[in-house]
Amino acid sequence: QVQLVESGGGLVQAGGSLRLSCASSGGTFIIYTMGWFRQAPGKEREFVAAISRSGGNTYYADSLKGRFTISRENAKNSVYLQMNSLKPEDTAVYFCAADRTIHSMYVPRAEYEYDYWGQGTQVTVSS
How far apart are CA 29 and CA 34, in angstroms? Predict the structure, then answer.
């Protein structure tokens, strides 16, 4: 049973930074493409970023490019999301997800492409 556990959320002022972590257990992390999604109050869950198995390919939502960075450490079965220059509109619950389909460099961006999900971690950005 694959488990994903997010951490690192919290309350931060606008302009600040947070680093989210997602630890995986119970599966073969190195084969998973990993993604981050978020869901703001009253809105649908949306794609944030994704990273290939090796970490050599990443993809970001257009609106977040330059502020957010996804990375992974396969030796630690973990994926990270560095968030800089945070804005109040970044307030959301952030979820990590794993796609067990083996891809080469492709990084999926749709929710349905991901098989495992964490419970989420709350990020609140105050103005």
Answer: 9
Dist CA 24 CA 103 (whole Å): 18
Distance CA 71, CA 58 (A): 8
Contacts of 67 (CB under 8 A, 6+ apart): 83, 84, 85, 86
Q: Is the pLDDT of residue 112 over 90?
A: yes
Q: Is the Cα torsion angle 94, 80, 96, 68 positive or negative in sign?
A: positive
- CA 29 remoteness from chain centre: 15
Say what the pLDDT of residue 11 is.
98
User: How large is the average pLDDT for residues 1-29?
Assistant: 96
